[in-house]
Structure formats: C-alpha cells, structure tokens
What we know:
This protein is an alpha/beta fold. It folds into 2 domains: 14-46 and 285-379, Aspartate Aminotransferase, domain 1 (Alpha-Beta Complex); 47-283, Aspartate Aminotransferase, domain 2, CATH 3.40.640.10. The chain has helices at residues 35-38, 47-59, 70-83, 96-111, 128-132, 157-163, 187-200, 268-283, 286-301, 326-334, 359-379, and strands spanning 14-18, 21-24, 29-32, 89-93, 115-119, 148-152, 168-174, 203-207, 231-234, 245-249, 307-313, 316-321, 338-339, 348-351. A 7-stranded mixed β-sheet has the order 4-10-9-8-7-5-6, sandwiched between helices. A 4-stranded mixed β-sheet has the order 1-2-3-13. A 3-stranded antiparallel β-sheet has the order 11-12-14, covered by helices on one side. α3 (70-83) packs parallel to α8 (268-283). Pyridoxal-5'-phosphate (PLP) is lined by residues 37, 95-97, 100, 123-125, 174, 178-179, 207, 209-210, 235.
Amino acid sequence: MNLFDVYPLFDIEPVRGEGAYVYDKDNVQYLDLYGGHAVISIGHSHPHYIEKLTEQLKKIGFYSNSVKIPIQKELAEKLGKLSGYEDYALFLCNSGAEANENALKMASFHNSRKKIVAMKGAFHGRTSLAVACTDNPSIQAEVNKVHEVVFTPLNDEEALKKIVTDEVCAVIIEGIQGVGGVKVPNTHFLKTARELCNKTGAILILDEIQSGFGRSGNFFAHQGADIKADIISMAKGMGNGFPIAGILLSPIFAAKHGLLGTTFGGNYLACASSVAVLDVMKNENLISNAKEIGNYLMQELALIKQVKEVRGMGLMIGIELYENCAPVRNELLHKHHIFTGSSSDKNTLRVLPPLCLTRKQADTFLSALNIALKNSLAAS
Ligand SMILES: Cc1ncc(COP(=O)(O)O)c(C=O)c1O
C-alpha cells in the first residue's frame, strides 16, 4: 500500500534527537530551528520526558474518559499555575484543529450565535469550522463553506469595530499568526477586541496552538498585551511531540455531562508528556530563556542588511527578506544542516526552535544565515 501523498518531503531521515539537534541515519547532525512546526518545546528526547512517559507506559497506557484519571488533574493544576489561568477549566483533546473546533462550539453553545470573525492570514486547522476560519480557500472543500465566517485585517481596529456586533458568536485570533508569516497582533488591537467582545457578548478565542506554551517568552503570547481571553486553544508545544491539545475555558462557561467529548483526549500518556513539559519548563526556566535568546536573535537579525523586517516574540521569529526565502532555506538545510520553516508569505522564513536554544546555537544560525544570504545575493 502507498501513503496518500499529500506532503512534499525533504530527502532527510531523522532517526534520533537530542535537545536542539536531530541526527539522520548517517549520524549527520542538524540544528533544529523549526521543531517540526513548533512542536518541540523542551528539546528532543529530554531525559525527564523519556522517564515520565516510560514510567507511565509501564503502568497503564489507556483507558477512556469514563474512569478517574488523576494525571489529568495534575496536568490541569500545573498548567493553571504556570500559565496564570488558575481559575479556568481544562478540556483535553488531540490536535490543534480539534481544540479550535471545540472552542468555537463552546462559544456557540454559550451565546447561541453562529457568525465567526477571523483574521486575514489566519490558520486555525483543517477540520470543518477550523478550516472555514482559515484564510486559505485552496484547503476548503465545498462542505467547509457552509459556515458564517468573515475575515478582517489583523491590527485594523476600525475594521474590527465595524464587524463585531451583537450578532457575532466569537472572534478568533492567533496569539501570533504563524503560518501567515509571524504577524504579531498589537496590544491596542487585542485590547479593542477584548472591549468589543465584552460589549457585544461575543466570545474572545485566542488560538495559542503555535504561539503558546512559553514560546513567546510569556506562557501565552496574548499575555504580553495584558488581556484575558474567554477561551484559549493549545496544542503543538504542549506535548513536545506527543499528540495532545486542549482548551482553557473561563469560569463563564458551565460544564454539563456529554457537552464535549473525545475518545483519546486526556489519555495517560498524553497527560504524562505534558506534565513532563511543564516540569522541565519550570525547572529549567525555559520561558525566560525563550525571551532572552529570542530578544538576542531578533536584535542581531535586524542588523543584517538583506533582512527587510524581523517580526515575532521570544522564539517565534519571522525573518522577512526582500526576495523569496526558499533558496536561503534550502542552503541552510543542505549546506549548514539547519532546519528552518517557511510560511504562506514566500519571503518570510519562520524560526521556531526548542525553548532550550543556547546563545552559541543562536550564533551558529546567525553565521550560517549571513553566508546563505550572501550566496543567494551573489546568485541572483
Ligand atoms: C495557529 C494554529 N492553529 C491551529 C493549527 C492546527 O493544528 P493541528 O495541525 O494540530 O490540527 C495550527 C497548525 O499549524 C496552527 O498553527
């Protein structure tokens, strides 16, 4: 049987990982500044992560959400403390799209409305309503086009004021737009969105699937704007590679048995992975490391003359060039053995390293990028 061929692949086969590095089958070392789409948060194969998952697997791997699973509570408590959202409730599921689907559904259960306001350039996943809220018609099938979704430009407060009325169910905003090219919502825009939702009864959903779990230098990127969301969706860095996702729900939402559900969500192994992530983040101060190394990288990147703009927060960085970034990205990967990411903006490189990145590793990247940029300029 063949695989359904939907992914363009690099001719690289990683077989093991350690910290910010992966190694291919010939033991060639790659510096991983992409973490497989922002998934690797605490670093590949962290010893505490391996221990927690192994310990759990030896005890019990799975039972459904019809029995007591105390590790779910442990996860909720640790997550509440580290994120500062202690009074919110946690619903666990399996992927980012599923988290957003549940977030939007909860908003609609709450206010019985169905019009969603999403941002131009947004990516929220590939399931029905999540993909309808994604600003990319090429990945929407006819069956996805039945939802009432309107798109408005990120950071345009006047447009937002016109569109968020008392007919709106929810406003959904990425903590930092990732796929769209690392675009940061500004503080004033987020505060305006919060005020408009308060005024109209719309639910404010912050999609922190890519920007959350410490990546921005805050636990969630929107916390830099000093606002609170009604619902926060999380995934990627949450399990450092183990599939786990969730939503945090403000106390305005009442739970009822049967309202939401999933077979695999909140299973022992997924929870063990996320508990390990939170332990390591706390014990190794990875959130402040993300801020410090991220600030250093952004400051140095801004000095490179071939760089048009540097955007981001912490270790979620977009490097916009004056030209298509694909040749530079390829040179970084194949000559310098450094993984970086692309985005829907063809000129923007996306840098999403593990939060344990060191200054020395950041310097390795900066030197390689300078060489790759000079070469690509010479070739053009
Ligand atoms: C901001 C954001 N939301 C949602 C998703 C969808 O997550 P998943 O691929 O786990 O469904 C992604 C994935 O890239 C994302 O970046």
